């Protein structure tokens, strides 16, 4: 697994969302803002970015294990886990498995349930996975991975598209067109990687924070659905942000995390005993 490290202080592991072209580079703006108070580690999940891309059917357990083993062997200290989008669900379950090595969890625009019920898992996903492995799936991947399509996604999912959107789209295109990169995306598009973090949140002993993008929520009741399983869960809606609040407003998101961490966890910069 590929990762980068920067900053100093209590460790925070930042993990990107899952989509065509995803990598730890998504978390770089947030890492820069946190780096003066925390040691930040940006991880490319297996199958994405610069990590290995084994030819296999991907499932949530692979990512749970990757996060757990990375914290145990590459950090080996109590770590704040920060996950974006679908990865927010994975860091929640990984935190339970890590026990005391997970000092807290931050969920950035996590998966949204429909109403108060469970997040639905497609019943047709085995058929969809086989279809994606056909020439039809290869064509679909080429379209989704194209620079033009990546630009459309950035335009749609960011409240304020970056000035360097063309360069950003090209980076996503490059990662999405790597050899064998379609394997994890087939699992993602077929629904194999769906995961509802609320059951894990209800069992999590570590402090947790949820930050929602104000313009991204399909279900305005999503915060209520999370509150129902964990009444003490702190949640904030970040104005002027969409799918990736940490890209639209990295300063605001970093400030929210550090303020919350000062109250709930180890004060950034404080010497560990």
Computed structural class: alpha/beta
| Main β-sheet description | 7 strands, mixed
Radius of gyration: 18 Å
Shape assignment: globular
Please give the count of helices: 12
The CATH superfamily of the domain at 3-120 and 195-264 appears as Alpha/Beta hydrolase fold, catalytic domain
Q: Provide the low-confidence segments as ranges.
A: 267-273
Structural features, described:
This protein has 273 residues and is an alpha/beta fold. The protein has a domain at 3-120 and 195-264: Rossmann fold (3-Layer(aba) Sandwich). Helices cover 44% and strands 14% of the residues. It has helices spanning 28-34, 60-75, 86-98, 125-132, 135-145, 147-157, 165-176, 182-189, 198-203, 222-229, 245-248, 250-264, and strands at residues 3-7, 11-15, 39-43, 79-84, 102-108, 208-213, 234-238. Strands 1-3-2-4-5-6-7 form a 7-stranded mixed beta sheet, sandwiched between helices. The chain is globular, with a radius of gyration of 18 Å. Mean pLDDT is 90; it is low at 267-273.
